[in-house]
């Protein structure tokens, strides 16, 4: 039987505000346990939350970037459950009235644009962290993360493969990072994803029973977990068994999902409007102000790169995947006016160096100006492409400008015709046999002569000029 | 008269004239406490050392001519109000050892106004009760009859004022917890508009209903206290940035031409005949004072208690979830695992009434019941609010009895929660509507128990309440009695 896969994703993204959502504590990652806490975020008796307006603005940015409608009025609700990392015994979240709804983003699926619906985006506070002592029967609670602002982005069940799911996640991640509202760090938990997945026989309208997958801390693991889960569900259905609605945890080492709790064991969160907070009213002026300050988003940038710089869509995709990289590229192009050469050098050598050291473009020792200068020096014929390969590596290692490296190493290309003619003449004289063979029709020997000239000039001869002169002089 | 018997404004005059010192006032209050506290049990914890240190400081300031509205005035705080470095228990075993690292905003404001603190007063556990019998620290007794309850939940704050164990006190009112004990103890008690006095540092019972207010010996003192307590607090999202008038200027003004609404739903069967007689006399005094009493209707009154006993427990079930033994307060010993720790801590830490309300609230919020209970109650609450909005078109203030009966006997209603809940029948509506209310003495029963009258006004009209209460106080000429302790 052929099955259709149905996937919906819930993404939690940590907002990059300086302070927590309902108090003035720092949101910095790390720090000694419980050093970023106060009576409000550790839920002492009698304290009250006061909303950090920045969080609303950050969430509005994401809502606008994903084509959501922002509700004129929304409210916080309490999600009640007991756990030691939840000091109040409830999480302040949004429930019946979220900040934004009815959005979408577009994915490229087999060359066609496919819209993935965004059901809602809401704001909430993060919980703390438990640390278990392996040698003692004790657990410790670190509440530094408690009250760090999150947004939850819930998609419609619109994805039909694990590839689409992974692509959707990458697009969301890219937008969040572009908006500078989330650092996107999956390992530190700034970007987390839960997946709902089900299968149904091709053509069936009703959804199959879904399972919810948790604990996947990388794009790759999301994809692996989904693939495992799809296979598991198919196996069950094909063998006459039924899929149970439950929450399953991905086990990375085992490469499998395991049941965590069934529907019957699911919490009743007893949501109700938080009486300590007032409804958030968002007027058009506020939305307009946020809209005006939105940066160019990845998709728009990609299209602009293709149109303005005439580079292939593939190049534009690579260069815009990281906003800092795109900025670097644009800076180089501005200084050297050679979009394709700039793209080649960045996507080739520069990114290779960075990847080898797992560095980001922000840490690149080659400044945009240096790279642009180097590209201009090639264009002007001062150095050859081959020399440039060597120079760029030195630029990366030393951070020096190409001019300095050329000077230090005496690498300037020989473009003086007289000097080259002298050199070629002596090579022709020293190799009469080869000359005769060449003139006799063995044209392949042309390469031999080029090599000899390059050897004699230690590679500094301008290759184009050598070609032209050799052709003339070998012809006699 | 002894110093501890005087009002804030009387003591202020003496302080200004230099005839008494803050230390003398404090000595007088503590000698009174030594004499009567054992019988009344107004306090959970005394702050004697702190009080005398503050009095000494106040005396230095007085010498320098630096005299603030409450300089040298000994005030008692309900033990629901957080005090930095001083245990704040909320009358509960689960918080018996909790020492807040912060002050409630009202504590800061009172301190800034020169007040000194006598101690933390007894209360129903987590303010859940109408008799101060549910306190883990044992019951408080009514100074007028030690066999009777003082009302609640702010019973200790009411008795401390009634028994002259302080000059004024702070209480909190979620369904009548200031006004009801004020009535039963023969003192003045005000519940301000929701959002008028900061809730920051007030241990939450039902967040959408809780409000802090004062107990005083007369109406002018109530105005003085409100001048200090009222005002916007950026630490509270539901605090309202409305200008605070000088409440004292309303005291002494007449009520010529005012319309006083008498809601028919508040004069029903079950009301004690002596209470009814006292209220009728009050109505007559109001009319003699220039007020015109008009019949009004608050048609959804019959639903107030039911609505309240959904909303308040629902919020409480969530507010009290933080008492889990993890971070502070009681943690049960000898536990097997996390769940066992939660269960035992909460089983040992909470009393029966608190558990009952947590269960009611949890049930009301549960999936499948939310719409029928919490949501429905919220809708009825809106109707109750609308009743009042309609009423303000016909009258300036509303007059009702504060309680249907005078103080009942200790133990009389502890086995019958429903009867206990009905003692707040006239006070709950103000909390549901968010409006201010005041209770003040309007007579005594033949047995010598105080009776209270309640005035209600529209949002942020505390000034009107001060005005009518002071006009009544002046014209009623109720004999000054003191409990024979």
Note the topology:
The complex is a heterodimer of chains A (476) and B (485).
Chain A: E1 3-14, H1 53-65, E2 69-70, E3 73-74, E4 77-80, E5 90-93, E6 100-109, E7 112-125, E8 129-133, E9 138-142, E10 149-155, H2 162-178, E11 191-201, E12 211-216, H3 219-238, E13 246-251, E14 256-262, E15 272-273, E16 280-281, H4 284-292, H5 298-309, H6 313-320, H7 323-336, H8 339-356, H9 368-379, H10 385-398, H11 402-409, H12 417-430, H13 432-439, H14 445-456, H15 463-475
Parallel strand pairs in A: 12-13
Antiparallel strand pairs in A: 1-10, 1-11, 2-6, 3-16, 4-5, 4-15, 6-7, 7-10, 8-9, 11-12, 13-14
Chain B: H1 8-17, H2 22-40, E1 43-46, H3 48-63, E2 74-78, H4 105-112, E3 116-121, H5 155-162, E4 168-172, H6 179-185, E5 188-191, E6 212-216, H7 219-229, E7 259-263, H8 273-288, E8 292-296, H9 304-319, H10 338-349, H11 352-365, H12 371-391, E9 397-401, H13 417-422, H14 428-433, E10 437-444, E11 450-456, H15 462-476
Parallel strand pairs in B: 2-3, 2-4, 7-8, 7-9
Antiparallel strand pairs in B: 1-3, 4-6, 5-6, 5-10, 9-11, 10-11
Helix pairs in contact in B: 2-3, 7-15, 8-15, 9-11, 9-12
Number of H/I helices of chain B: 15
Broad structural category of chain B: alpha/beta
CATH homologous superfamily assignment of the domain at 3-253 in chain B: Amidase signature (AS) domain
**Helical percentage of chain A:** 40-55%
Cross-sheet strand order for the largest sheet of chain A: 2-6-7-10-1-11-12-13-14
Structural class of chain A: alpha+beta
Trace the largest sheet of chain B across and list its strands.
1-3-2-4-6-5-10-11-9-7-8
Largest sheet of chain A: 9 strands, mixed
Write down the Rg of chain B.
Answer: 21 Å
β-sheet strand percentage of chain A: 15-25%
User: Roughly what fraction of the amino acids of chain B lie in strands?
Assistant: 5-15%
Question: Quick one: how many beta strands of chain B?
Answer: 11
| Mean pLDDT figure of chain A | 91
Summarize the amount of helix of chain B as a percent range.
Answer: 25-40%
How many beta strands in the DSSP annotation of chain A?
16
Tally of DSSP helical segments of chain A? 15
- Unreliable stretches covering 5 or more consecutive residues of chain A: none
Gross morphology of chain B is: globular
**Highest CATH level, the class of the domain at 3-253 in chain B:** Alpha Beta
